[in-house]
Specification:
Layout: E1 9-11, E2 14-16, H1 22-25, H2 28-37, E3 41-44, E4 49-52, H3 55-63, E5 67-68, H4 89-95, H5 106-119, H6 127-139, E6 146-148, H7 149-154, H8 156-166, H9 173-184, H10 193-219, H11 225-234, H12 241-273, H13 277-280, H14 284-297, E7 303-308, E8 312-313, E9 319-320, E10 325-329, H15 330-333, H16 368-385, E11 390-391, E12 396-397, E13 406-408, E14 410-412
């Protein structure tokens, strides 16, 4: 068993663990294993939350309506961010209208619009385009014999897919990635004023950019999400432009951040497992099973927070008052030995059991079908084109445990001369 992080300790129901400890964010699973040994629930000293690691409790709380993403300020389910500092005004102007920071009935209204315009589109019809993008990107490095996969493949593929689906130019992908990274950094524990200032500036620029896109789509609608939301806006006032901007920011950020990390994490896991990629992606069933194991084994999202809406007593007598926060450790739940046999091993053929990588309940990831399709095509195409991939350097994870992803993934392979794109 690898050594525990230097900051880790659990005793008398209190967890001590610094998420910025390199020993933790490089390998959180050793700490999770120890936390499971201590019952899977503890008061997390560094965050002031109740940390929950066991699969059963995490899964139940994701669906329990006594918990929400926020503590609504009124009956409309909206948060009150009027007390936020002025230097974060633009960031919270978006957050206050984001699906992630809303509860019913406002959440229900906005999610139903996105569901109709986004999920109910036949995601499978995107498969040829995703495959074309994957092959085009691989063509760019196939003859080199080496690649840094995060920048050359894992990042541009989902960014281009979500940009095209929503209706923004894929040539603007670098802007979207930069704004997204800076805004997502706000969720990091121990963030600095520099991070906050950068995130606010990114939010301001992102919103201005999207208002320009929306104005253009009003003049020239197309078959994309922006146009669909504009149609919903004019259909009985279902949403206003500020809500539209916030929804698009969320979908652009969530639609690529997690998938970027999941592609990198999955490629690393498959290579380290020593399993033959040809068998993992030989047919639709084996591909689907491999994707689910990748999502379980090293999910990019390790933390969801929920807020108690009332007095709640959990198992073993743990009690939360209204307004108390609970940290749901998704990565730990996916490695619960009570649910998953040999959880620390990558076993693509393991019996199917529900992981919690996409959350649950009313906040279940709306883009889960697209994420699964992107992973299946991105991984299957990569290992089919370059079946002898191996790591050229030891990979390291970023200092952003909540969004677990690799800083870079340096790979080598036998150079390929032919390309598959026209």
């Amino acid at each position: 068993m690898p050594p525990l992080p230097a900051s880790f300790g659990v005793a008398d129901g209190v967890l001590r663990l610094d998420p910025r400890d390199p020993g933790f964010y490089q390998d959180p699973y050793t700490a999770y294993e120890e936390l499971h040994r201590h019952g899977g629930i503890a008061r997390w000293a560094e965050t002031g939350t109740l940390a929950v690691a066991d699969h059963g409790t995490v899964s139940a709380l994701l669906r329990d309506r006594r918990f929400g993403r926020i503590l609504p300020a009124g009956e409309d389910g909206r948060p009150d961010y009027s007390d936020k500092p002025p230097h974060l005004a633009d960031f919270y102007a978006i957050e206050a209208r984001s699906l992630l920071d809303l509860e019913p009935p406002t959440h229900t209204r906005l999610r139903s619009l996105v569901t109709r315009a986004f999920v109910s589109r036949q995601i499978e019809h995107l498969a040829p385009r995703i495959g074309a993008i994957a092959n085009e990107l691989i063509d760019g490095f196939a003859a080199d014999g080496a690649v840094e996969l995060v920048e050359a493949y894992a990042t541009p593929l989902p960014v281009r897919v979500i940009a095209e689906l929503i209706g923004v130019p894929s040539t603007d992908a670098p802007l979207l990635v930069d704004w997204s990274h800076r805004m997502v950094a706000m969720y990091r524990l121990g963030r600095t004023q520099e991070v906050e200032t950068s995130a606010n500036a990114a939010a301001l620029d992102f919103a201005a950019y999207l208002r320009t896109v929306i104005a253009d789509k009003r003049r020239r609608p197309a078959e994309d999400l922006v146009s669909a939301l504009i149609a919903a806006e004019s259909d009985g006032g279902c949403l206003d432009e500020a809500e539209m901007v916030a929804t698009l920011v969320l979908l652009l950020n969530a639609g690529h951040e997690a998938t970027v990390h999941q592609i990198g994490n999955a490629v690393k896991a498959i290579i380290e497992s020593g399993q033959d990629p040809a068998g993992l992606f030989c047919n639709p069933d084996s591909t689907a099973a491999t994707v689910e194991e990748c999502l379980r084994f090293d999910t990019p999202l390790h933390l969801f927070e929920r807020v108690a809406q009332e007095l709640v007593t959990l198992r073993d007598g743990w009690q939360l008052r209204r307004g108390d926060r609970v940290a749901l450790l998704l990565g730990a739940a996916n490695h619960d030995p009570a649910v998953f046999d040999r959880p620390g091993e990558f076993l693509a053929g393991r019996a199917a059991k529900p992981h919690v990588s996409f959350g649950g309940g009313i906040h279940f990831c709306i883009g889960a079908p697209l994420a699964r399709l992107e992973l299946a095509i991105a991984l299957g195409t990569l290992f089919k084109r370059l079946p002898d991939l191996f790591m050229a350097a030891a990979p390291h994870y970023r200092d952003s445990w909540h969004f677990r992803g690799l800083e870079r993934l340096d790979l080598r392979f036998q150079p390929q001369g032919a390309t598959l794109t026209p």
